[in-house]
Amino acid sequence: xxxKLEDIAVAMVAxxxxxxxxxxxxxxxxxRFDTIGLESTETSRRDYREMLLRAxxxxxxxxxxxxxxxxxxxxxxxxxxxLVDIIRAAGSIPGIKVDAGAKPMTNFPAExxxxxxxxxxxRLARYHEAGARFAKWRGVISISDTLPxxxxxxANAHALARYxxxxxxxxxVPIVEPEVxxxxxxxxxxxxxxxxxxxxxxxxxxxELAAMRVKLEGMILKPSMVIxxxxxxxxxxxxxxxxxxxxLKRTVPSAVPGIAFLxxxxxxxxxxxxxxxxxxxxxxxxxxxxxxxxxxxxxALNAWHGKAxxxxxxxxxxxxxxxxxxxxxxxxxxx
Length: 335
Ligand code: 13P
Prior knowledge:
Pathway: Carbohydrate degradation; glycolysis; D-glyceraldehyde 3-phosphate and glycerone phosphate from D-glucose: step 4/4. The protein is α/β, with parallel strands linked by helices. The chain is built from 13 helices and 10 strands. The strands form 2 sheets. An 8-stranded parallel beta barrel has the order 1-2-3-6-7-8-9-10, surrounded by 7 helices. A two-stranded antiparallel sheet has the order 4-5. Helix 10 (237-251) crosses helix 11 (268-280) and helix 11 (268-280) runs antiparallel to helix 12. 1,3-dihydroxyacetonephosphate (13P) binds at residues 21, 138, 177, 262-264, 292-295.
């Protein structure tokens, strides 16, 4: 495995490959399992993630890296193999979610600040030792007619930049994820408002990254797309693609090697179509790929349904969606 930050970052967004976000917190994976009536236990979480990581076709051909929750980084498969070794054996890179979650922000009602900086340097050393070569930190920006506030945008950008600097010092590539929510309350915002807030958020994030002396060549940006709120959705695929590219060109320096989107509550097909449209119609200074959680896993979770007999079906569903996302990362996906 390469060890230079730039090389790891380039490998994470290499031709037609992208990231599997399998780092749902214990509370979030419980919500996902509830949809198939499965109890979330250490074993069921392990079984589910082992199924995904052993999907050979997806992992070898389309998935450059996997974002893990801390529990998974240290977990063993049924046969005793470490799950990180399964990832590495497939030629993919293990990564780790390191933030401690978005918490209510004092003095800023209805907004959050992501916590987890205290003791992070020590945790990163442990994660590196365990095989992680990249990390993720998610800042959450709520959007409405009156939100976000400048205070919340600035504080979240600053925390992302502090985190990114610590990662690079530990030999770990930071995924910098400032998510402008599409499905937060009230969730009925226009695409104009999304464009305005996304541009503001990304500009502030790169100001803070510069202030904290983060090396742009050794990071990956994980943004949300410019899209109308979940309760207002009607912008076309072309419009989402055009506006997202416009904002990224205005705010993301070309020294950043890659941008890997989150899916954020878009349907599986929407997330695939939007990524493909962006790559098909533009000559871009960075690689543009996926770092999807729900949009990569939804079909696999439904096909598996918590049953050992369905492992093959779950893996086929995952490999299929990973292949479609890979085509989208090359701009050649067709409905
Ligand atoms: P979704 O693609 O489900 O939004 O998850 C990606 C992610 O990592 C959010 O932090």
